[in-house]
Specification:
335 residues, alpha/beta, Rossmann fold, four-stranded antiparallel sheet, 27% helix, disordered N terminus, binds iron/sulfur cluster
Length: 335
């Protein structure tokens, strides 16, 4: 687990009760259903959960890139440096994307256009946001490529993506994302298509970039090992909601939500011999057909009567540790 000597300070991004729904002929899908969290300066927050739990849709909502017309942000606030991004014009929002908040998409290798040179693609955000004068763009692009450890960057500016290895293209995508000097970088499972050694190098690089560029990172993943390497805090998502928020240390030492516990139990451990890895029974509910009460109840081994009828309130267990589960609710509950 990495520790950062520069202690994070001050909230940079505050997401408050964000709701993004999809209106289709099958009904209303609550892809993001009342999500709230903060991201401090130079902090890394992990969004953890199974596929379809709302992690990617939360980040697309922050950037107002929800696929329409079916998808719509129906309520909430996204306060970035005190300004609500859901209330500003599309023109102002275009200035925020890339310059204020940048994103590395889930399949970074296909984000590079095969017919444009690497130098041209890294330079694009610099041109759009006019970060440096035209005459300084080439030098800046070389510096960015050298920052992401591309050897002899000057000589590679006119090369095309197919002339780079998978790991190098991945790093080029990282250089493009940070080229306009964003404050927040959202990385949506950027190491999924890389082999384990390259993954480890990439995560190390991301951590270095964070320190050199004072970045705050939202890291979306279903991989607990990756979380341990890159994140300070974690928000665990299930069926469009955050069910637990805690530090990475607390995640591994004292998870409180049965879903978080189940995720931890399903990872292989060197010190434990098992015939079969435990898995979470059943599958996540469809966002168009959420059960009443706690959405995890049909899969939860500790579900009680109240869980099937009433949504659990959020309870604060410790500073920085909150959970939405009836087992931890302060009021009396049925059993
Ligand atoms: Fe399980 Fe009930 Fe807690 Fe949901 S609220 S996780 S069903 S114990």
């Amino acid at each position: 687990m990495d520790t950062d000597s520069n202690a994070p300070s001050g909230p940079l991004l505050e997401v408050k009760d964000l709701r993004t729904h999809f209106f289709t002929r099958w009904g209303t899908g609550k892809a993001v259903d009342g999500v709230s969290f903060t991201l401090n300066e130079r902090e890394s927050l992990g969004l953890l959960g199974e596929s379809g739990c709302g992690k990617s849709m939360t980040s697309l909502s922050i950037l107002r890139l929800v696929p329409g017309p079916a998808g719509r942000i129906v309520s909430g606030q996204v306060l970035f440096q005190g300004r609500d991004l859901l209330r500003i014009s599309e023109q102002e929002m275009r200035r925020v994307r890339g310059r204020g908040i940048a994103m590395i998409l889930q399949d970074p290798l296909s984000t590079l256009n095969p017919v444009f040179s690497i130098g041209g693609q890294v330079a694009e955000p610099l041109r759009v946001h006019r970060v440096v004068p035209r005459s300084g763009i080439r030098e800046r692009v070389s510096k960015l490529l050298s920052l992401v450890r591309i050897p002899a960057p000057e000589s590679r500016l006119n090369d095309y993506p197919h002339q780079f290895s998978g790991g190098m293209r991945q790093r080029v995508v990282g250089a493009t994302a940070i080229s306009a000097g964003p404050k927040v970088l959202i990385a949506d499972e950027p190491t999924t298509s890389l082999d384990v050694t390259i993954q480890a190098q990439y995560l190390r690089l991301l951590k270095e970039l964070q320190q050199e560029s004072n970045l705050s990172i939202i890291y979306i993943t279903h991989d607990l090992g990756t979380l341990a390497r890159i994140c300070d805090r974690v928000a665990v998502m299930y069926a469009g909601k955050i069910v637990e928020q805690l530090t990475v240390e607390a995640l591994f030492e004292r998870p409180a939500h049965p879903y978080t516990e189940a995720l931890l139990q399903s990872i292989p451990r060197m010190d434990r011999k098992v015939h079969r890895f435990p898995s979470i029974e059943g599958s996540p509910p469809l966002v168009y057909d959420l059960p009443p009460g706690c959405a995890f109840a049909p899969r939860c081994p500790r579900a009680m009567a109240i869980c099937r009828s009433e949504a659990p309130p959020e309870t604060r267990l410790d500073p920085g540790h909150s959970v939405a589960c009836w087992l931890h609710a302060k009021d009396e509950h049925e059993t």
